[in-house]
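Q: Can I see a sequence and its folded structure?
A: Here is a first one.
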Amino acid sequence: MAYYSDPKRASDPYALPDVEVFEVHAGWPWDECPLCTLAYLILPRPPRRASLGSSGDQPDHATHKAEHLGWYWQSCFPGCLPDSDPIGPFATEAEALADAQEGGL
């Protein structure tokens, strides 16, 4: 989600959000993302992992859950490549945003 590094800029009609806060998961969240399922069908198969289930390459949807790695933030403007590396992990989105805004929450 896009935010302002300085919350005071949010009311400026000419200012753009300059911080992106996002959540990262390890694994394959098949049940949450139809695009991941589509990519799985058309891209080369990943290496087999025990967490993918008993059927080999395809995960068992009933037991597979993606591992939550945390929340991150990075500087960027809408439609542009990021200006920084991702910074984190943080336990919550609010903590990541507060760090991006230098404790502004």
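Q: Show me another, different protein.
A: A second, unrelated one:
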Amino acid sequence: MSASAVRFALATEWSLAADVDRVWSALMNPLAWPRWWRYVRSVVDVAPGDAQGVGAIRRYAWTSRLPYTLVFDMRTTRVERPRLIQGEATGELEGIGRWLLESRGAHTDVRYDWMVDVAKPWMRALAPLFAPAFRWNHHAVMRAGGEGLARFLGTTLASERALVGDASIEHA
């Protein structure tokens, strides 16, 4: 990322009334996300990964509450079943995303950390002014993801929480 990059550090927490293996399986199958996550327009396999999924590249097209679409590739860089999925985004968003799952019996706590820079020129130019709107938009998209995942799994989203400036991701 360039020195003039506008970095967003965003985190979302979900608590789902579902077994960690079911949540893990859903998150590890992003090709199915458009079926349950309303803002995911498409996910396309670009390159396969190893047996664990490390190295896989997928192209995502996302819409949002605001009138724009973002397209980026996500390369899976770490997989530790059933607790961690981490990847690196390139394209209209650049940075690191990480899913963390923790089993709590019949519940699973999920945290998504997203540390990204916007690469679209208009977004870069407006990010200092519109950062609150971009954060609100991200959290609305993530809330819809938690609700959609709960429906997909036939369970409930026990809680959802958006955090700002709380994401810290190791570049491993």
